[in-house]
Amino acid sequence: MRRRPLTRLLAVAACAALLGAVAGCGDGGDSEAAGSTTVRLGFSAWPGWFPWQVAQEKGLFAANGVEVELTWFDSYTDSLQALSTGNLDANSQTLNDTLTSVSGGAKQTVVLVNDNSTGNDQIIAAPGIADVAALRGKKVAVEQGTVDHYLLLLALEKAGLSEKDITLTPLLTDAAAAAFVAGQVDAVGAFAPFTTTALGRAGSRAVATSKDFPGAIPDHLAFDSGYLREHPEQVQKVVQTWFDTLEWIAANGAEAVAIMARRGGVSEADYRTYDAGTTIFTREQNIAAFTPGGDPTHLDFQADQIAEFLVRTELAPGKPSLDGLLEPKFVHAVT
After folding, report:
1. Taking the model in full, what pTM does it have?
2. Cis omega (within 30 of 0) on the bond before 193?
């Protein structure tokens, strides 16, 4: 689940940056593992990342000549900490979280866009609340610093409101959804599968979703910058495997869904409902996203917007540097 207790994550990232391999902080980016060609890759419960399971089960990493130690994290936060402390070489995570880690001193580089959220992140309101404007004066539960907090602020701004116009109730996403179903709050910001939980409240509806803000919530593959520097050929093979996996999924849809649903712990029917809300990026869409530009479809623009959000909400001590954050050469080199 995409959870982010950011103060803890910032502390972990800073510790990794300052102390490297000192006991109690974990391995740094230039740790002993940086000498290994095995790629320690983490992922967790988000539909855009389940193709990694397909790659592993169908031998597609091996087909590209790369040895991958694929690790599933029940706790998304644990995967973020593992990358920041050098216990992973790469992780699938949101742009928000990569920038949070960078704010804390971690050295990470985005090499691939897995997907954009196009509906699976939602602001869900109680009966009688027809739109975002009607949230004025209402209690809204959301996990602070998450992409759904970011989505809430975007939606409020579009409606001519700000966070000061609502009563924000900070809760972890699962608890927020439960509080909404119990009638303790008037609205909730959540991501799939907790959107399904929240919509279980009779008469509730989504008044804003990530579909309304194209490009605002990109999910991607981030590498430890030290590992990338030492082993660019392994990074290239992992990126190549991702696109080979997408081809395999397109040709073997039923089997692919079975694999991904099993990994997600949901039925195949439930898994299929997530398709429209998560847009997996093609190579061409990746290249377009990595190309510098002045609107939300471009990663550099979105990274700048998110960096300002982190500072404005005091979830980062200062605006993180974007230098070296985005590296498109691996996507360009895919055959």
Report:
1. 0.81
2. yes
